[in-house]
Amino acid sequence: MTIQEFKELEKSAEEEIKMPDTLREVIEKNNYLPTLINKYQKLYANQTYIVKSLEIDAAVKYGELVKYYKFQDSYSWGNAKEIDSQINSNAEYTKLLRNINEQKYFLNFITETLNNLKNLGFVIKNYIDYKKIVNG
Question: Which residues of the chain have pLDDT under 70?
Answer without folding.
Answer: none
